[in-house]
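seq/struct pair 1
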Amino acid sequence: MSCQHTVDVGAYLFGSLDLSERAAFERHLGGCDCCQAEMLRLAPLPGLLGRLTLEDVENLDEIPSRPPRPDRRRRVVLVCAAVLVTLALAGGIVFLQAPPPPTWAAENPGTGVNGEVSMVQKSWGTEMWFKLEEVKPGARCKVIVFDRQGQREVGGWWGSDHGPDERIPGSTSFRVDQIDRLEVSDESGLLVTLRP
């Protein structure tokens, strides 16, 4: 039995995955026996490699004439460490999953427009995904993003001729926690205001 994600175990253990890749791998790990077994097998590596000195690395090609005798106590410690890492990962998967992205929704009774936005924090600002209903066909829509300091940015432009379940992308340099409100409008004026 094998899994294509077992190659991600090493990258995960050494902290080489970015935040979204790490979250996806942790979700996968909870249900994959193959990746869990590989995790147990590789768990001691970061600690062992951390103990290497420059001299050890320079002398890797020198093979001793007699292999060292196995150290039973060391094996027990390594197995216990692997079990603890596995339990910690399992607990992290259950209890430390990232919260879902914030979603704001509103309806403007005057225009009849329903709006919803899901926001994802990024290193550069915020990624936004809109769903809008009851916008007149053929309109050019835009979103203005207002932060809590009164600054504003255009977060995106789009045409209203899209499917009812189609998500519309937008973005802003403001972090999610800095955003006060989003105003969606077309040529005729304000369609809907989205707030937390």
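seq/struct pair 2
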Amino acid sequence: MKNKIPLSTVPFLSALMGAAFGKGENKTVEEIAAPTAEAVKETTTKSTTTAPTSTASTSSEMKEISLADTKRVGREDTGYVNIPKDWVLYESKYSNQQFQYSSPDKYSLLTLNGYAKDTVELGPDETFGARLIADRLYSYWQNDKNQTILQGSKTIFALESAFLMKVAFSDGKHLFQWVFQKGDKVYSAAIESSANIVTPLRPFIEQSWGLDPNTPGK
């Protein structure tokens, strides 16, 4: 996710949001059958996916990696996911608001966010929830001058109902961002890189996210 985008920079005026998920003409709605988190809990010798070498940012080179080739990262307020072992903590001026890890070359970026109700300013007709946060983020991406394709859809993420945004940018990067509610909080998880990196890493993000710092998908 573009590291310049904390939620605090997203317009909070309802007039700018629009109902991105459910009506409107500037989106492609698709139902996505996401793998369940149970797949990640299998033995590491069986849990494999096609994933790229993280340094091959502009290459189509990919390799098979297993859950054993990943590490679990995150924070209590944003949740935890499994990512390639060679990724490193990414620090920016927004690090207190969101958690980020990047590939060693900083080309690929993972961003995790958590939103409590008392931290989100609500308009008079707004209700806190995943839909609200997703609409605001969707509106932000609509107005990003570098985006060339924006799709919004409903999916399943970590066994929760979620909104998924897929964004393509003029520099060739792609972004997958999920927004979902678990308990009293809304969370978002985003992966940004070239398509050959984002696509194969998607199952790891979808299946391994959870609130347990040690157990994928829990």
